[in-house]
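Reminder to self: keep the SMILES exactly as supplied, no canonicalising. Ligand is flavin-adenine dinucleotide.
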Amino acid sequence: MSFKDSGDKEYDLCIVGSGPAGLITALEYTRLQPEHSVVIIEYGDSNTKTKNDLDDSIQVTNLTNHHEPYECTNKGFGGTSATWGGRCVMYDEVDFVDRPIIADGCTWDLDLFRELDKYLARSADYFECGKAVFNINEIPQFKDERVAENFREGIVTDSVVERWSMPTRFGSRYADDIAARPNLTVLRGYEAREFVDLQGSGHFSILKIRKIGQAELFDVKAKAFVIAAGAQESTRILLRNSQLFNLLPALPAALGKYYQGHLSGKIASVRFYGGATKTDYGFLRDEEGIYLRRRFQFTDKFLTENNLLNTAIWLDNPLYYDPKHRSGAMSFMYLAMLMPILGKKLAPAAIAESITKGKRYGISRHIGNVFRQFPKSLVIPATIFYKRYLLKRKLPGVFLFSPENRYALHFHSEQIPDVSNRMELGPDRESLVINYSLLEEDINSVIKLHKVLDNWLRETGCGELEYWYPDIDMSTAIRGMSRDGIHQSGTTRIADSPERGVVDRQLKVWGTKNVYVCSSSVFPTSSQANPTFFLGAFAVRLAEHLTKQL
Ligand SMILES: Cc1cc2nc3c(=O)[nH]c(=O)nc-3n(C[C@H](O)[C@H](O)[C@H](O)COP(=O)(O)OP(=O)(O)OC[C@H]3O[C@@H](n4cnc5c(N)ncnc54)[C@H](O)[C@@H]3O)c2cc1C
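C-alpha cells returned for the bound complex:
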C-alpha cells in the first residue's frame, strides 16, 4: 500500500515494527478495541530480503562474541520470527532480584514479575506453545520422572522446561487475522523516522515516515505510538529522536547502555552412571503434542546466596564438526550443512554456524562414519528431515541417543548488565555502533556452575562431568566460543525513574505522555531465558494498558 500524509485522519494507535512484539500488540489492541484504528509501520518489504540500509549501517566492534547484523534480525512482515527457532522460555524470580553480581543493574522488581503472570497464557496462545506451564512437576503426565536414573532435585533442578512454538512465523501465521480486521492497516516498506511534539508538552502527535529508498517524509498522526522495532532498531530510533526527552533535564543516562545477550556454548560432557535408556535426552511431548525439553537450573536461593548468574544447562549432542563422535547421522548432517546451497536452506546462518562452528574439519573421517553406520546414517537424518521440515508442528531440534549415556552439556547464561556494552550512534548520527564483550565475572559464573552441577551429580550418585578443557584454558575457551546478538536486552531498560532507566513499568518512554517501547530492550536483566515468549506477555499487557489509556 502506498501512503501520503494521513491528512486529518488520526489513528488511535501507531505501531512501529511487525515482529512478534508489534503484531501481538496490534492484534490484542484491535481485539479489545474493535472500534479503534491502528496502523503498523513496517520497514521490510519484498525488496529488503537480501540487503537493507538499516543492517548495512550497523557496525559490530567484536565479531568474536556478536553475530553480523544480518544474522541477528530480519526486516520484513513478521520481523525476526521469519527465522527464529521457536524456543519459548520463562524468566525466573531471581531475574527480578537485585543481586551484588548484577551491580545495581536490576531496575525492575518482583511485583512486576508477578503481574506478568496474568498475561502468560495469552502469550502462549500467540506462540502456539500450549499451556504456560514451565515446570514439569506441574504436568501430571511427567511429574514423577527425572532426567536420569538416580537424579534428585535440590540446589540443581531438572524440572524446568522450555516449550516449543511451531515455530510460529508471525507474518504468515497472522496475515489472515490482520486482513480480517478493517480497523488495522499495515504500511510495508516504510521507515519510522521522527516523532513530533507540536505543543512541546510531551504529547507526540505525528510520526514522520519515509518510503524505503526515498527522502520525502509523510506524516502519520496518532494518539499513541508503540516502538516495536526490535531491540537494536528501537534503541536506534530513541537515540536519533532525542527530542522525545526534551522535558527531562537530560537524556536518560541508561539509553543504549547495559546491552546484554547470553553466554552460550559447551565446555563439558556429562556421563550418567545409570541405565542409558532411562535418560531423558530428547524432547517430551505433552498432551497437546507440544514439544518440551528439560533444562538443568539452579534454585533462586542458591544463585542469590552464592552470587552467581542465572544459567540453564541442557543435554546436547557432541560437537558435530568433530568426527570423534563416530555417529554416522551426525556426520551426514554436518556434511549437509557444509553444502553451499543446501546448508543455507537447512538452518538460519546463526544456527548453522553454531553447528558447524564455521569449520571444515575431518571430512574423510566424517564420510567414514557415514559408511560405517549405513543405512542408519541416512535413515535417521531422513526421518528428522521429514519431522523438521514437512510437518506443520516441526521437530524443533535433533538430539541423538547415546548408548554410553554420555551427552555434551550446553550452557546458556545470564550476562551482567555492564555499562560498556552499549549501542550508540556513529558520527553521522544515523549509523549504529554495537560494543559487546564478556566480563571475566560472566565467564567465572559459568565455570562455577558447571562445578556445582558436577558435585551435585556425584553426590547423588547420578553421574559426573568430563571437561573438554583443562582449568587453565577454560576461560579463554568460553570467550572464544560464546556468540550472541540474537537475544538482545537492556538498552532501553525499565526503571522507576529516568535517572535509572528509559521506560517506566508500563513501557512508556520517560519524558513523553504517549510513546511506548515494546521490545526485549526494556528488560534490565537477561536471565537464562530466550526473551521472545516473555516479551509476548509484555505486548499483551501493553495492549490492555493502552486500551485503558486511550
Ligand atoms: C536465528 C535466530 C533464532 C532465534 N531463536 C529464538 C528462539 O528460539 N527463542 C527466542 O525467544 N528468541 C529467538 N530469537 C530472537 C527473536 O527472533 C526475537 O527476540 C524476536 O523476533 C523479537 O521480536 P520483536 O518484535 O521485538 O522484533 P523483530 O522480530 O526483530 O521485529 C522488528 C520489526 O521492526 C521492523 N523495523 C525495524 N526498524 C524499523 C523502522 N525504523 N521503521 C519501521 N519498521 C522497523 C523490522 O523490519 C522488523 O520487521 C532468534 C533470533 C534469531 C536471529
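Points to follow up:
Residues 135-167+260-481 form one domain.
Residues 86 and 167 are 5 Å apart (CA to CA).
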